[in-house]
């Protein structure tokens, strides 16, 4: 591992820890040349998830895009940024458990909505109204009745 301070090519590992999700390894290192310490993170490189849009277009799954959608739906609610991050992490794990790496966008919305529904019903309705594309009040009422 190259030292970020002096660019020397060798360092020694002082400490290794696994993250809570067991997906990332944190290593505390010390440069053999300048003796400065730094931290590195290791994560398994996975094949990208491809989102298949309703019109057939394909794009790479974007953690931040889902997070932004959830943030918009949870404005002025009790849902925290940590809750949103946890939902996105759970959705990504669920998608990776699928037999394929090509995932319909509607499935992503459904997974996110189900997690959001457990935390805050108002945020759930806001999110569902966008991803289900309610076109009239009757569809909105139908979804509300399911919650009640």
Automatic annotation (TrEMBL):
Keyword flag Repressor: yes
Pfam families per record: ATP-cone, Zn_ribbon_NrdR
Record-level Gene Ontology MF annotations: ATP binding; DNA binding; zinc ion binding
Cofactor note: Binds 1 zinc ion.
Cofactor (UniProt): Zn(2+)
InterPro entries referenced in this protein's UniProt entry, alphabetically: ATP-cone_dom, NrdR-like_N, RNR_NrdR-like
Residues passing through the membrane, by range: none
Segments forming unnamed zinc fingers: 3-34
Domain of life: Bacteria
Keyword Chaperone belongs to the record: no
Stretches assigned to the ATP-cone domain: 49-139
GO biological process, one term: negative regulation of DNA-templated transcription
Keywords: ATP-binding, DNA-binding, Metal-binding, Nucleotide-binding, Repressor, Transcription, Transcription regulation, Zinc, Zinc-finger
NCBIfam families associated with the record: transcriptional regulator NrdR
Protein task: Negatively regulates transcription of bacterial ribonucleotide reductase nrd genes and operons by binding to NrdR-boxes.
PANTHER family: TRANSCRIPTIONAL REPRESSOR NRDR
Family the entry assigns: Belongs to the NrdR family.
Protein name as it appears in the record: Transcriptional repressor NrdR
Source species: Candidatus Roizmanbacteria bacterium GW2011_GWB1_40_7
Lineage: Bacteria, Candidatus Roizmaniibacteriota
